[in-house]
Amino acid sequence: MAEEALPGVLILDIGGTHGVLENLAALLKKHFHLITMKEFLGNKEEMSKKIQSIFVFECRPTIDRELLESLPNVKVIGNSGVGVDHLDLKLISSFGVKVTNTPHAVADPTADIGMALMLASARRLVEGNVLN
């Protein structure tokens, strides 16, 4: 499918300090035409028509009234994390936009780390390792 035929998704950036990880961006590119915030701000009039979704990675980009007003065709905001407490759900829903997230994405790894920390603490593994 041609890049222009894919739905547009707004992201902060690819790579760098706060951008979407490059391997994740490669996966997104299979299904979406990625538009960075820099590209959007450089040509709001044209880009705003193409953007149908926003991908929030590490709480970025910030979703506020000004951004939502500038994106008349946005239908969904996909949050890459578990929680959505950084999003104003009431504001977003007032624009008729849906919000998704990944509620179980890190449940097993979090439980694994919790168990490992409890076992390490109970058996004093860190202290034993330092002494050797």
From TrEMBL:
<feature type="domain" description="D-isomer specific 2-hydroxyacid dehydrogenase catalytic">
    <location>
        <begin position="23"/>
        <end position="113"/>
    </location>
</feature>
<keyword id="KW-0560">Oxidoreductase</keyword>
<dbReference type="InterPro" id="IPR006139">
    <property type="entry name" value="D-isomer_2_OHA_DH_cat_dom"/>
</dbReference>
<dbReference type="Pfam" id="PF00389">
    <property type="entry name" value="2-Hacid_dh"/>
</dbReference>
<dbReference type="GO" id="GO:0005829">
    <property type="term" value="C:cytosol"/>
</dbReference>
<dbReference type="GO" id="GO:0030267">
    <property type="term" value="F:glyoxylate reductase (NADPH) activity"/>
</dbReference>
<protein>
    <submittedName>
        <fullName>HPPR reductase</fullName>
    </submittedName>
</protein>
<dbReference type="InterPro" id="IPR050223">
    <property type="entry name" value="D-isomer_2-hydroxyacid_DH"/>
</dbReference>
<dbReference type="GO" id="GO:0051287">
    <property type="term" value="F:NAD binding"/>
</dbReference>
<dbReference type="GO" id="GO:0016618">
    <property type="term" value="F:hydroxypyruvate reductase [NAD(P)H] activity"/>
</dbReference>
